[in-house]
Design a protein that fits this description.
This protein is of the alpha/beta class and 218 residues long. It has a domain at 84-140. Helix content is 33%, strand content 25%. It has helices spanning 33-41, 88-96, 100-109, 125-138, 155-171, 183-189, 207-211; strands spanning 2-7, 12-17, 22-26, 48-52, 55-59, 64-65, 73-76, 143-147, 175-179, 192-197, 200-205. The strands form 2 sheets. It has a 6-stranded mixed beta sheet, with helices on both faces. A 5-stranded antiparallel beta sheet has the order 2-1-4-5-6, with no helix packed on it. Helix 2 (88-96) crosses helix 3 and helix 3 (100-109) packs antiparallel against helix 4 (125-138). The longest helix has 17 residues, at 155-171. It is globular and about 45 Å long. The model has no long low-confidence stretch (mean pLDDT 94). Bound molecules: adenosine-5'-triphosphate (ATP). InterPro entries: AAA+_ATPase (IPR003593), ABC_SmlMolc_Importer (IPR050093), ABC_transporter-like_ATP-bd (IPR003439), ABC_transporter-like_CS (IPR017871), P-loop_NTPase (IPR027417). GO terms for molecular function: ATP binding; ATP hydrolysis activity. This is Molybdate transport system ATP-binding protein. Keywords: ATP-binding, Nucleotide-binding, Transport. Residues 2-217 form the ABC transporter domain.
């Protein structure tokens, strides 16, 4: 279970989601989705309590703050944050240099094989996004934090990568928090949708509970 209670000027919410579930954060621009992911990642420090599987990661009263590198997370934020002086393969190796098989698997699964020796500046936006996703997975995280991870992909690749994400989420027993603005993507991927507006949670449940029907656009 992930439990978070935030009382900040930007976020005012109390949220519980099950471990090993794929949680989609859904809401208008500025509703606080990225801020919530940054809190779980350990990139924000004050005004919230966070507990993951019974371990307290942030508690302002007890002055507890677990550093990001000790959280077992893989993350893709909107700036990708790839190291510019390293090739795709070297970026992945920095995350998990001891597991070449894992790196080869991810390079292949994310359609990066012909690009593995290129530096980020010589990649398209969609290719950089896939490299960032590969790097997030390279370190075998237990918690995956994805801020619109497929937004720069074409429709065909996007559908295939949704399948890949679902598959790796399930087979590796990950807990995944994913932001998307695409309701069909949310309906396909989510065990649970958390809808947000103005820094608050406005709904939580399976896609059909939150949106009705089969969770599709209507
Ligand atoms: N560094 C910051 N300093 C002050 N306010 C910020 C900062 N970053 C974000 N905000 C504000 O916090 C609120 C939530 O922003 P956040 O980026 O979490 O929204 P979001 O739901 O992820 O939006 P989007 O869908 O556009 O990415 C917004 O009102 C935004 O203006």
């Amino acid at each position: 279970m992930i439990r978070i209670k935030a009382h900040t000027p930007i976020l005012d919410l109390s949220l519980e989601v099950a471990s090993r579930s794929l949680v989609v954060l859904y809401g208008p621009s500025g509703s606080g989705k990225t801020t919530l992911l940054r809190m779980v990642a350990g990139l924000a420090r004050s005004g919230f309590y966070l507990e993951v599987d019974g371990e307290v990661w942030d508690d302002p009263l007890l002055k507890i703050h677990r550093p990001p590198q000790q959280r077992g997370i893989g993350m893709v934020f909107q700036d990708y944050a790839l190291f510019p002086h390293l090739s795709v393969r070297e970026n992945l190796a920095l995350a998990n240099g001891s597991d070449a098989k894992r790196i080869d698997y991810l390079i292949d699964a994310l359609n990066l094989a012909p690009l593995a020796d290129r530096k980020p500046a010589r990649l398209s936006g969609g290719q950089q996004q896939r490299a960032a996703l590969a790097r997030a997975l390279a370190r075998r995280p237990r918690l995956l934090l994805l801020d619109e991870p497929l937004s720069a992909q074409d429709d065909v690749l996007r559908a295939r990568l949704q399948g890949f994400l679902l598959d790796i989420h399930r087979t590796e027993g990950l807990t995944t928090l994913l932001v998307t603005h695409d309701r069909q993507e949310a309906a396909r991927l989510a065990d649970t949708v958390v809808s947000m507006a103005d820094g608050r949670v406005t709904g939580q449940g399976a896609p059909r509970e939150v949106w009705g029907g089969r969770g599709e656009i209507y």
